[in-house]
Design goal:
Helix content of chain A: 55-70%
CATH topology of chain A: Ammonium transporter fold
Distance between the termini of chain A: 90 Å
Number of strands of chain A: 0
Largest sheet of chain A: none
CATH superfamily of chain A: Ammonium transporter AmtB like domains
Number of helices of chain A: 16
Shape of chain B: rod-shaped
Structural class of chain A: mainly alpha
Order of helices and strands of chain A: HHHHHHHHHHHHHHHH
Helix content of chain B: 40-55%
Largest interface: A-B, 28 and 26 residues
Radius of gyration of chain A: 23 Å
Strand content of chain B: under 5%
Oligomer: heterodimer
């Protein structure tokens, strides 16, 4: 009998160990696979941005987008990951209430010369988490990238992309997405799918840059009226937008915390990044309903396929902050409203002289803000973070409004100030001659369509170029 | 530099195993990679500047 008990005990221990190993492998694989899915966001942005460019600028736009991604990877390794773990409580690098933040924690978890930041058999988590966050960071740069096409200098753009992707949004994530974040702990800020910490920050960073960059030549007439500058391939843009949406599944998947690991919030169920319980089914319901609401809302208000696909993106972004909480028909309505806001916001920015070539400020900034505030309007009262009853902040309209203000400032201020500095030293915008000739023929050693759409990369100059040439230079 | 795994083999290896693990080379390689990024940016600025000057010289519009 004793031998039998000992044998069963040993078998149970072996089974437990095997189960733990299986869980660790599954968790590592879960985040690993989110990374190539998120690369699809960049495939999408690449196509979206190139399609929205005129033929004379297609490859220059592509190069810009590819380099933003490439430079963000080392920049996030050097600094971004450390910032995320060091600064949740503010700028003092103190330890937060859950004790997973602060200088010492960041030195242990994210030191770019530490042993956890490389191949290490004792750590199956850091690399895949860092990878997923790097792709979040690259997404912010891609959001800005589309807005500024056809006239920004590459060097300025890369520096701005690094400032956004390795610093600005990371502070937003540390404050409003990390469980020790002061916005979360003090104000109950809830932003599960990053409507604020990624989309708002990137969208309003782009706004700050666009103000200093100025509109493309030919966008505005001398009487202040504006012209539509069509990209060279709407089909490419539409496929790009749909590909971004495929990638969003990876993005949102990586926002959930896998159960059963030492770093998990729960042994038995998925949680949000705040440690609150959720299911992947909740995301499936609400992503798809928000997606559909966004398309249909944009169709209702614009009939334009560009805005319909942007509406799909906008619908998901509108629902993102509360994706873990919405009743699916609510997600549909919130996505629908977000899409209906888009053309109003786009017209407003165009009217005040902001030439946002792909509507990034509107789709990510304005609709992201709607998503953040929607949680305050419809989902107040939820415990915002893991912790004992009565000890944690609750979601509220006030908390979401404060978070919204912080996200706006974390995006707009650095975008505006840095681009202003570049403008003052003459390094922000390409010279007029280069813009008119087209950036491909000026600086790209290959041709986008040597035999197809036109043999000369500068064959399709904007129709109104002369009309706006003098008027549209940045002040 | 080189392998941190001894001739005894992989059995029992549990921690970091990348090239040079346990040594002092990590900051140097970090600086090397940063330097390569900086080099690419500097050369990129020069290329852009040259391209824009040529465009202004050969102005087509």
């Amino acid at each position: 009998m004793e031998e039998e008990v000992a044998r069963l005990t040993a078998e149970l221990a072996a089974l437990s160990e095997a189960n733990a190993v299986g869980n660790t492998m599954a968790a590592e694989t879960y985040y690993y696979l989110s990374i190539p899915l998120m690369v699809l966001i960049h495939v999408g942005f690449l196509a979206y941005e190139m399609g929205a460019s005129r033929q004379k600028n297609v490859l220059a736009s592509g190069i810009k987008n590819i380099l933003a991604f490439a430079f963000l990877v080392p920049a996030f390794y050097y600094a971004g990951w450390f910032v995320y773990w060091a600064f949740p409580t503010g700028l003092d690098m103190a330890v937060g209430p859950i004790e997973i933040s602060g200088f010492d924690y960041a030195m242990a978890a994210a030191n770019p010369v530490g042993e956890v930041m490389g191949p290490n058999l004792a750590d199956n988590a850091t690399g895949v988490f860092w990878g997923a966050f790097t792709l979040f960071a690259a997404t912010t740069a891609s959001i800005m990238s589309g807005a500024v096409i056809e006239r920004i200098r590459l060097f300025a753009f890369i520096v701005l992309a690094i400032a956004l992707g390795a610093f600005a949004w990371v502070f937003a994530a540390a404050w409003g997405w990390h469980a020790d974040g002061w916005l979360v702990q003090k104000y109950g800020y809830h932003d599960f799918g990053a409507a604020g910490v990624v989309h708002m920050v990137a969208g309003f960073f782009a706004l700050g840059v666009l103000i200093n960059l100025g509109p493309r030549i030919g966008k505005y007439n001398r009487d202040g009226s504006s012209n539509h500058i069509a990209g060279h391939s709407m089909p490419m843009t539409l496929v790009g937008l749909m590909t971004i949406i495929v990638g969003f599944w990876g993005f949102l998947m990586a926002c959930a915390i896998y159960p059963g690991e030492a770093w998990s919030w729960s042994a038995t169920e998925f949680t949000t990044i705040y440690g609150t319980p959720m299911t992947l089914s909740a995301m499936a319901f609400n992503i798809l309903m928000g997606f559909a609401g966004g398309i249909i809302g944009a169709w209702l208000t614009t009939r334009d396929p560009f805005w319909m696909m942007s509406g799909a993106l906008g619908g998901i972004i509108a629902c993102a902050a509360g994706l873990d909480l919405w009743w699916p028909p609510m997600a549909f309505a919130i996505g629908f409203v977000g899409a209906c806001i888009m053309p109003i916001s786009a017209r407003f920015f165009e009217k005040i002289g902001v030439d946002d070539a792909v509507g990034a400020v509107t789709v990510h900034g304005t609709v992201g803000a709607w998503g953040v505030i929607a949680v305050g309007i419809f989902a107040s009262g939820y415990p915002a973070v893991y912790g004992d009853a009565g000890t944690v902040a609750l979601t509220s309209l006030t908390g979401q409004a404060i978070g919204l203000g912080v996200m706006f400032l974390l995006g707009f201020v650095p975008g505006y100030v840095l681009s202003l500095l570049f403008r003052l030293v003459g390094m922000l915008r390409v010279p007029e001659a280069a813009e008119l000739a087209g950036l491909d023929i000026v600086k790209v050693p290959s041709v986008a369509y040597p035999e197809g759409m036109g043999s000369l990369p500068n064959a399709n100059v904007g129709a109104s170029a002369d009309a706006g040439r003098a008027y549209n230079q940045p002040a | 530099m080189g392998s941190p795994i001894s001739e005894a083999g992989w059995a029992g290896v549990e921690g970091a195993y990348y090239v040079g693990a346990g040594g002092t080379w990590e900051p140097i390689w970090l600086l090397v990679s940063m330097g390569l990024c900086a080099l690419a940016l500097v050369v990129g600025i020069a290329h852009e500047r040259h391209a824009y000057k040529r465009a202004e010289r050969e102005r087509r519009y």
